[in-house]
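Hi all, posting the design record for the shared folder.

TITLE: backbone redesign
STEP: 1 of 1
STRUCTURE INPUT:
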């Protein structure tokens, strides 16, 4: 959670440039009024270059990015899409909104998708897999990619928490056929709301670009009001002010991630030797965004005590253990589609995930860290586990 911490003159300058160039806020058209200022298109090109992919498409949110990605893959009613049991509710919502059936795999000690459970749950009805890099730690991508390859199932990466991270020197979001990113206000880089999809394949990109724009193909041979189309779609277009902010934030992304990693390490140095503190697994070769520092306490009661003691010294936790009901499929009995696919008692459907999450503690990391935060964190955790 850092992008909002560094909003300043650079973002303001990009926004002012929109108004100085004619004040056109729509990403398409009005060519004679906008002084050749196309911030969303510029943002897309810069993001694609940063991720070393051929195509990027800006959208209105990370949730929209997932929904458009599934539309571009042709996901429809009767299909199954597998994701993981620990993710934000939006991942499953996007599957449901596509008409498909959401199936959730267990997580392993990375708190990301367990490749072995993924392999067990793939069926002939599986038409896509969405792996999520929760709280900035990469999923076990080589293993997941291999499972998907063996079954000829496309992989979508939900990189909402992983923007700026890598695995084996390759950017998160670029291992699969598509990668979805979120730029909401609490993400590593932010446009307030907003998201991005990156693509390896041009035809998939073109389908997504049309679908996110009511089916518009933006055919250069005709005016937009006479535009060609070959499918329906919806409106998930990003506006120019978001694109302007995104450009400035993208330039800051490497420094944001570096600062978060440095602050994560400072906190961990004060905790690593405490009895009862077990580190989260991290895949070899991972370059985490360090959105949070996650560790396991001995049991659920100890994890809750960690939160209480952190609050007592003016600190906090993030998602775990206090808010996992929005991030664990085992609590989502308000989704009949999820119940049909994963059993009538969701609390019993993902026992390994439930056990890990029940004793996990997540400490929020940002660009700025108070000088006494490591000492206060150690004091709280030591007292909670004593």
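Okay, here is what came back for every position:
SEQUENCE:
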């Amino acid at each position: 959670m850092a992008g909002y911490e560094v909003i300043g003159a650079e973002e303001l300058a990009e926004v002012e440039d929109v108004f100085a160039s004619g004040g056109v806020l729509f990403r398409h058209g009005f060519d004679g009024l906008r002084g050749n200022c196309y911030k969303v298109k510029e943002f897309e090109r810069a993001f694609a270059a940063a991720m070393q992919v051929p195509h990027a498409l800006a959208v209105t949110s990370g949730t929209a990015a997932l929904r458009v990605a599934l539309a571009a893959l042709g996901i429809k009613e009767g299909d199954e899409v597998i994701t993981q049991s620990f993710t934000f509710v939006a991942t499953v919502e996007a599957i449901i909104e596509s008409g498909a059936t959401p199936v959730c795999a267990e997580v392993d000690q990375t708190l990301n998708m367990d490749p072995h459970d993924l392999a067990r749950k793939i069926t002939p009805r599986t038409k896509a897999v969405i792996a999520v890099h929760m709280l900035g730690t990469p999923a076990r991508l080589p293993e997941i990619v291999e499972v998907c390859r063996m079954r000829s199932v496309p992989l979508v990466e939900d990189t909402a928490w992983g923007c700026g991270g890598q695995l084996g020197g390759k950017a998160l979001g670029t291992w699969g056929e598509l990668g979805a990113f979120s730029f909401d206000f609490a993400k590593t880089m932010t446009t307030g709301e907003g998201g991005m999809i990156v693509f390896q394949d041009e035809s998939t990109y073109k389908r997504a670009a049309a679908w996110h724009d009511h089916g518009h193909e933006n055919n250069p041979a005709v005016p937009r009001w006479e535009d060609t189309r070959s499918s329906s779609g919806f409106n998930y277009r990003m506006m120019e002010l978001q694109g302007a902010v995104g450009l400035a934030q993208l330039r800051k992304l490497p420094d944001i991630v570096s600062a978060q990693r440095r602050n994560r390490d400072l906190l961990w140095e004060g905790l690593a030797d405490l009895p009862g503190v077990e580190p989260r697994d991290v895949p070899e070769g991972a370059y985490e965004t360090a959105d949070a520092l996650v560790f396991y306490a001995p049991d659920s009661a100890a994890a809750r005590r960690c939160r209480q003691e952190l609050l007592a010294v003016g600190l906090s936790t993030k998602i775990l253990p206090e808010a996992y009901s929005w991030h664990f499929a085992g609590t989502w009995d308000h989704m009949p589609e999820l119940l049909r696919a994963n059993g009538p008692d969701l609390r019993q459907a993902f026992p390994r995930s439930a056990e890990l999450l029940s004793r996990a503690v997540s400490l929020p990391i940002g660009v700025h860290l108070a000088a006494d935060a490591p000492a206060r964190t150690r004091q709280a955790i030591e007292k909670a586990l004593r």
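COMMENT: The CA atoms of residues 142 and 175 lie 9 Å apart.
Let me know if anyone wants the other runs.
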